[in-house]
Write a structure and sequence with these properties.
68 residues
Amino acid sequence: MPNPCPTSATPFSEEDRQIWENLKRAIASSSGFQRWQIEQQLKDSPAVSGSDSLIRLYLRETLETLAY
């Protein structure tokens, strides 16, 4: 499975980029992500700028929770 987080070191096809953009949009509109954002604001967590960074952090924390 290809890395869903494009980096400059790894070339991705236009199709991969479109899939990532669509996935980010779907995640950003989900109630779980919106609730997580509110929790982050209440925790006074360090600000993460950019939707890409926020979604990556959300996915990382969600997967860590599921793995636990």
